[in-house]
């Protein structure tokens, strides 16, 4: 994936947090950042109930060296309410985590796109896709969440479904 204009900011960041809905290109971008700039990749996996997510992400963000997070605490603020009716992180905890990103000189990267194109990517990759209304809800909720976190850490939003010539 080519992301115009991103090389400069990423090359100067020791902590890059990439998030967005499935099919937006998080893993592709994380791998490109790691290959080009030497960041270690941390892929956030589903965390079982009962695990303190705030402590988990504090520990991840405290790891030394250049890091790129492929999915992060941002996803809990999106998927928690949409999938379970509540987030396991409070907004206050998430803003504290975003502040840690900023204190480390990091950046939050919000990957987004057009719902129909994201759905088409998911269908090609996984053989199925959620209903378009679900994809749209995820995209909207991610945008709202990143808007809230932008007061605490730098946010770069990239539409991965628009091509630039």
Report on this model:
By secondary structure, the chain is α/β, with parallel strands linked by helices. The protein contains seven helices and five strands; from the N terminus they run H-E-H-E-H-E-H-H-E-H-H-E. Helix 4 crosses helix 7. The N terminus is likely disordered.
Strand line-up in the sheet with most strands: 2-3-1-4-5
SS-based structural class? alpha/beta
**Number of H- or I-type helical stretches:** 7
Helix fraction by DSSP (H/I, runs of at least 4):
40-55%
Looking at CATH, the homologous superfamily is P-loop containing nucleotide triphosphate hydrolases
Annotation, overall tally of beta strands: 5
Number of structural domains: 1
Spans of at least 5 consecutive residues whose pLDDT stays below 50 are 1-5
The SSE string, one letter per element, is HEHEHEHHEHHE
Distance between the termini: 14 Å
The largest sheet is: 5 strands, parallel
How much beta, percentage-wise? 15-25%
Chain-averaged pLDDT: 90
Rg over C-alpha atoms, rounded to the nearest angstrom: 15 Å
CATH fold call: Rossmann fold
Second CATH tier, the architecture: 3-Layer(aba) Sandwich
The best one-word shape is globular
Provide the CATH top-level class.
Answer: Alpha Beta
């Amino acid at each position: 994936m080519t992301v115009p204009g991103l090389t400069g900011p990423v090359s100067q960041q020791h902590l890059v947090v990439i998030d967005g809905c499935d099919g937006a290109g998080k893993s592709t971008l994380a791998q490109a950042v790691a290959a080009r700039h030497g960041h270690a990749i941390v892929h956030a996996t589903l965390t079982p109930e009962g695990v303190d997510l705030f402590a988990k992400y504090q520990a991840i963000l405290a790891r030394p060296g250049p890091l790129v997070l492929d999915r992060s605490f941002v996803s809990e603020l999106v998927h928690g309410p949409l999938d379970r009716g509540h987030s396991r992180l409070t907004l206050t905890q998430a803003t504290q985590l975003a502040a840690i990103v900023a204190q480390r000189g990091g950046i939050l990267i919000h990957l987004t796109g057009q719902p129909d194109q994201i759905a088409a990517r998911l269908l090609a990759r996984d053989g199925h896709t959620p209903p378009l209304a679900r994809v749209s809800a995820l995209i909207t909720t991610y945008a709202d969440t990143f808007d809230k976190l932008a007061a605490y850490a730098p946010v770069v939003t990239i539409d991965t479904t628009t091509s630039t010539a």
